[in-house]
Amino acid sequence: MNILIDQILNQRQKDTLLAGLGRDPTPAEVAMVSAMWSEHCGYTHSRHFLKTLPREGEHVLAGPGENAGIIRLHDQLAVAFKIESHNHPSAVVPYQGAATGVGGILRDIFTMGSEPIALMNSLHFDIRDHRGKWIAEHVVDGIADYGNCTGIPTVGGEYSSYPWYVDNPLVNVVCAGLLKPEQVLKASTAQVGDRVLYFGNKTGRDGIAGAIFASLNLTEATREQKSAVQVGDPFMGKLIMQATLELIRAGVPSAMQDMGAAGITCSTSEIAHNSGLGITVELDAVPVRAPGITAEEILLSESQERMLATVPPDRLAQAEEILNRYPLDYAWIGVIEETPDMVVRFQNETVASAPLDLLIDGCPVEDYADLTDDVLRAGKERASDLSGIAGTGRPLLGGKPSTNPEPPTLSALLEVYAETSHYASARHIYEQFDYEINQRTLGGPGDDHTLMYDAASERTVAFTLHSRSPWTLQHAYRGTRAVLAAAWRRSIAAGAYPLGLSNCLNYPSADRRETMIDFGGTTLAMKEFCEALGIPVTGGNVSFYNESEVGAIAPTPVFVLVGDSVLGPDRYRYAGAEGQLYLLGTPDLTAGDVYALWRLRQDGTLSGATVPTVDFAQEHQVGQALLDLYRAYPGAFAMRDVGKGGVFKRILEQFARADRDVVLNDDLPAALPDVLLGEGPCTYLLFVPDATTLEWPAALQAAGIRPLGRVTAGDGKLLAPAVELDLLKYRARADKSLEPHWIDQLELAP
Prior knowledge:
This protein is of the alpha+beta class. The protein folds into 3 domains: 1-37 and 185-362, Phosphoribosyl-aminoimidazole Synthetase, Chain A, domain 2 (Alpha-Beta Complex), CATH 3.90.650; 51-179 and 434-569, CATH 3.30.1330.10; 391-424 and 572-737, Phosphoribosyl-aminoimidazole Synthetase, Chain A, domain 2 (Alpha-Beta Complex), CATH 3.90.650. The protein has 27 helices and 28 strands. The strands form 5 sheets. It has a 7-stranded mixed sheet with strand order 8-10-7-11-9-12-13, with helices on both faces. A 7-stranded mixed sheet has the order 23-25-22-26-24-27-28. α17 (410-418) crosses α22 and α20 packs parallel to α23. The radius of gyration is 26 Å and the shape is globular.
């Protein structure tokens, strides 16, 4: 632990701490500051950029700074949602790293008074690598076991395999919950004289200094810090969820916070500071399971399934009456004070006494005033030169690099498609999850978006999760704009205008200027997107230092959009009808993911690949017209956004049947590879059954909606000018993951 403290406190931080205290710090104070001033808790590098994001909106009930963001859908229903990373723990101990990521995000949601209804995940590996395969298997097991044991369905997400995740997997977990607007409980409403309530598991030595560990590059030395990885207990997780919700519904706590990163240190200090007050903490009262545990270990332990609440004196008996019904530990470990200091006592001594302003806001924050908007928009172009990015610079399939390869044929591109695991059926992942429990899920994993139906309010909530690392690797600012536009289209296809956005920003070391130019470009693009479309940022997470001796990850921002969908249980479901296909937008092959993977297989670069240039005003106009169409013709037609895998992936998923053919028109809007595998702005695929006649809004006519082809009687073929493809064979290859040892069936070893 002392080694990690020496690594995390630089000279500037040490000087600031000494000046703020006016004396030498105690060992407990050094431990507390090391955690709270780490990048994971203190956002020392990212705060300069994050403060520029729009956070206000008429639907926002809780935003950044709270445990989760909350959006009001209407007077009787609100949705809480958040995304968090557990990348470093999952790289070292994949099962527990992923499982505790699920447990932590669940606590963030029910701490706000919201009943969790759905889990999602964004998983990124390189499964060509044997260690990458092992990590992927155990991460999926950890997510499945924790979610299934707590009874919260895992209803969707995304999975990708790219070479830059070879030694640094990304495990980002999302949770959403429903509540009534008047049930919101924040972590900033404690009152002077409140007693501080600890309940849940006992405190042990697992997860000590986890926040510090997550703020370091992965090296052989840091990989040995396995004690920094928490150990999950899903059954206790379910108990504290039930106990927490009962306490909140009974009106017992004045404020509540879960114990996540930095454990007791963070939860106690933040609940007091956010309320504008102070706190005294008695560590001797904390339930512990490790004999001889020190004050520093108690303060930095990240043992899982622990909660913190503040309770007015007249409600103490009521709190104990409720908690006595559950087999868990609880204790009164402190009191909320008027003076804004944090005082920590242990074994009849004061081991720490510091101003909360110093502990929480006193960390020196990096100033990037020289990184102006013009600098960030210019950014750094990457295509042929991917030096420093893990797993690149060599062909993915081995052999000699191809210099100036010939443009790919359609058959070569389709071969890449068929051999890429993130185009295969995701059943090997989601069949391990219970995704229908509680019977709210419309559709399920494998869909491009997630719809959850609330029968009481008769409303459908749409959740969209999206990232695209080849775009953000080529250019962070333009790539992020393209990713956000793609997420917007996915939400529109789900029938929802997004009301709020959360994010998980996964980047390499923040100590390099190149990383911060990329990071600043991403936040600038996010700001422009949110301002253009009126979507507030309700919260998020930053994960730096995702790199190791083998190289760095590609910048990978992951975005979650939440909206009130116009779709419901009666939405259109394709059941083999014949009809017309229409295409919006003009897909470009070089902007597509399949082309990027083909280039990586040729020479380990993205040379020739492009990033779509998007116009948010145009995206808004087209998206609003499509939502109006959904409202005008409820349940009458199907719509999909054209994302990763292009039109071909949508045709394969939706229309590959033994009794149907897809026949494309002779006058295609572009070359066949562009039409089938390209991507671009405002791109949607619509299917209108013969029994339905639609009148296209003027905005769609102006955007150039045009017939693409027909779904008609046949035997499972895709027929285009001079091309005939057997869709059933391609789908069978995509379903190869149904074989027993799924991870060994995917992609060819290098």
